[in-house]
Every structure is written in C-alpha cells, then in structure tokens.
Amino acid sequence: MQTASLKRLAVQPGPPLRGETEVPGDKSISHRAVMFGALAKGVTRVHRFLPGQDCLSTIDCFRKLGVRIEQPSPSEVVVYGQGPGGLKEPSEVLDVGNSGTTIRLMTGILSGLPFLSVVTGDGSIRRRPMGRVTRPLLEMGASIWGRENATKAPLAINGASMALEAIHYNSPVASAQVKSAVLLAGLFAEGRTSVREPLVSRDHTERMLAAFGAKIGRSEDGLTASVEGFPELRAQEVEVPGDISSAAFLLVAASIVPGSELVLYNIGVNPTRDGIIEVLRAMGGDVQVENAREVAGELVADLIVRSAPLKGTTIGGAIIPRLIDELPIIAVAALFAEGTTEIRDAAEMRVKETDRIAVMAGELRKLGADIEERPDGMIIRGGASLRGAETESHGDHRVAMALAVAGLLAEGETVINDAASIDVSFPGFAELLETLRRGA
Ligand code: S3P
C-alpha cells in the first residue's frame, strides 16, 4: 500500500491482517464531550478524543464561541466550561467543515443562546438537508434563516433571549442528529421537551447529558427521549471508547482476507451502534465480543475477528440506524460473500457525506462488482472476482476506506483518489492497515 500522499491511496492485494490494536476514539462521543463540556460548569477532561477533522471542527467552533479549550495532546482535550453564559456571539462565521453532527447539534444549542451566529460548512454540508433540524427548532420559537427556506446551510441563528418553547416532536426520520438537536434546544426551554423517532437511533446524547446532570427521560421502547429545561450541567471526565464505525473497516477486512486474525481493544459496543457485529455474524463471520464492561456510561468490549467464508444476507428495518455508517463497508463484505445481499430501508444513505448508494455502486462497479442501485438500498451479488481500477472517494471518508478494503482482494492495484478525507474520522487508517498486514 502506498501512503506517501493521502490524496491518492494505492492498495495491492496481499497478506492477511494479524495483530492487536485499538482504533481512534468514537466520533459521535468526541463531538458531544466538547459540546456538553462547553455548556457545563467546570473542567471537562476528554480522554481518547478523536483528533479527526470533524471533531477538530467542533473544537474550532466552540473556541469561536468564546469557550477555552485546550488540547495538550491530539487525543486529550480539556474544556473549561462556564455554563451556557460562557458562550458569546462569535465575530466569525462558524465553519463545521464536513461535519453533519457539528452543524446539526450546534444549531440546536445556538437556538437557545441570545446572540447571532452564522454556521456553514463545505460543499457536502451545504448540499445536505438541514430542514430536518430547523423545522422542529422553529417550532420551538427559534429564529433561523438559511438558503432554500432555512433548509440548507449557511444558516443564521438568532438565539432566543427568552426561553424556547418545550415541544413534543414526532420526527419523521430515525436520526440521532435530529433527536440531539431538539433535546439540546430543550435545555433552553421551559418544561420538558421530547422527541419520538420511528426507529431507535444512537443514544449517546441521552447517556452523556444524563451523566452531566440533565434530567433525561426515555420510554421503555427506546423511541422517545425527553429532557427537562434549564439543568445545571456539571463538568465530567469522559473516557471515549474506540469508534465501532472505524473498527468496522478492520472487522470486514479481517473477515474477507483469508488467514486474518485481529484483536481490537476498547471498542464501543453501545447496543444502538453494534449492528455491524450482528450482520457479520449473520453472514457467517467469526466475531467474538470479550470483556464487555461499562466505561463512563458506555458499553465497551474487545473484539476478536477471524477470517471466515461469508454468505449473503438481507439487511433492513430496525437494524439500519444501528449500522447506518457501516453500510458502505458492508457492501464490500457482500461482494466477497457467496450469494446475494440486499440492503433496504436505507434511503438515509443518500443524504450522508455523499449519496452513498449511488457513489458506492458506481465506484465498486469500476472494480467489476455486480451491484444494483435501489431507491432505498442496493442488491449486491457476491462472488465476482474484482480487478483493481482507479476510483474516487468523492471526498467521503467512509467511501475512501471501504474502497481501500475492497482493494485488499482485487487483482492488481486499486487507486483511491482524494483519500485525504479519511482524516475526517480515522486518521492513520492507511498506516494502521499496513502495519496489520505486516503483522502476518
Ligand atoms: C451521528 C448520527 C448519524 C451518523 C453520523 C453521526 C451522530 O447521523 O450517520 O455519522 O453523531 O449523532 P443521523 O443521525 O443523521 O442518522
């Protein structure tokens, strides 16, 4: 593998992956630790913070909002919170880069703060739907302007000088970003704000806000979450687990490359995020979960994965939000499985950093894959032998990494152009993959 320039990643087929490793910290949890630390009173220390571009964007935005944040090492962050009053009108535009979590959650927070902010991001962010968060926030009394009737960034938010209105929001999409934006605005609303979703999405906001001292309510079916307005949030020590969405690339790589065996330490296996393990097992994969324990309110475990012959499966319904970010790499696993894999109920893939249905189908076809696009997923016929080709990441970190893993079993060289985006969530991915291949 050639890693000299991450703008162009070249992968050759070769040895199995063997060894033991951690992966960088969880992206969702790293964002939230900075944001909630900024709203709390006291010093929040974040250990194993993900120093990926997305989370660095969150630090940058909250610094521009007047919060003192130090980063003594790439993965240690210290947030000096002074409560919501410590956030001040920014004199610059808040640029979230590529990060959907930053813009959507921060818009929820800014809706409740009494000053004007302008938030924007890169080309992908400016194409992605923001109406899903601005709609409920406007309903709560926030003042938000933006392109296309406040549904596209840049957004301008003139936070309320009086309390927002607590609402019960029935979200049409299962999205933790929507749920979190409403709950965070709910911190600035009189009474209890609640959100109901069609399917359970990741619950890091509820867990971490509760640890910071917010009064969080949850329905038994997990579909409704609520928060009481105006809590006194207190600073916390946050221990960030390894990101299962990053581990997923190694889980699939080790499953498909014969002779591989990996131990991945300290991986977050929150039940709202662990769909990848269930799917790999349903496909015949050999994944063991060991030493499961709770760390700072999140479930963490060590994962052992060995290569195994995979078979096709059907993925749809309630599991989709539990593996939404893993669908590009699952599509790659399916290519090397016997039989057909169907992914359905996953139209949300189309509004991620890229349209991941169109992009993955298009790029994997360049390697000779047999994939059919569906409005809400794809049909992947496994067993085709792939040949290396020149592919494009389209600036999407997970597309770049999924293509790199496909290249491990394609004949000849697979090139991924514009692979620098990998730094968004998994800095050091190419180097780690190379080290594990040398571990054989
Ligand atoms: C995230 C939620 C998911 C996920 C994204 C991170 C979060 O998005 O795809 O990578 O941190 O809340 P949606 O909530 O929009 O599905």
Automatic annotation (TrEMBL):
Gene3D superfamilies, per database record: Enolpyruvate transferase domain
Record region (Disordered): 1-25
Top-level taxon: Bacteria
Active site residues per record: D325 (proton acceptor)
GO CC list: cytoplasm
Keyword DNA-binding: no
Domain spans labelled Enolpyruvate transferase: 12-432
Subcellular location: Cytoplasm
MF terms (GO), sorted A to Z: 3-phosphoshikimate 1-carboxyvinyltransferase activity
Alphabetized InterPro entries for the sequence: Enolpyruvate_Tfrase_dom, Enolpyruvate_Tfrase_sf, EPSP_synthase, EPSP_synthase_CS, RNA3'P_cycl/enolpyr_Trfase_a/b
Residues binding 3-phosphoshikimate, per UniProt: K27, S28, R32, S175, Q177, D325, K352
Keywords (A to Z) from UniProt: Amino-acid biosynthesis, Aromatic amino acid biosynthesis, Cytoplasm, Transferase
EC number(s) reported in the record: 2.5.1.19
Catalytic reaction equation(s): 3-phosphoshikimate + phosphoenolpyruvate = 5-O-(1-carboxyvinyl)-3-phosphoshikimate + phosphate
Enzyme class per UniProt: transferase
Subunit structure: Monomer.
Family statement drawn from the similarity comment of this UniProt entry: Belongs to the EPSP synthase family.
Known function: Catalyzes the transfer of the enolpyruvyl moiety of phosphoenolpyruvate (PEP) to the 5-hydroxyl of shikimate-3-phosphate (S3P) to produce enolpyruvyl shikimate-3-phosphate and inorganic phosphate.
PANTHER family: AROM/DEHYDROQUINATE SYNTHASE, PENTAFUNCTIONAL AROM POLYPEPTIDE
UniProt protein name: 3-phosphoshikimate 1-carboxyvinyltransferase
Organism of provenance: Heliomicrobium undosum
Gene that produces this protein: aroA
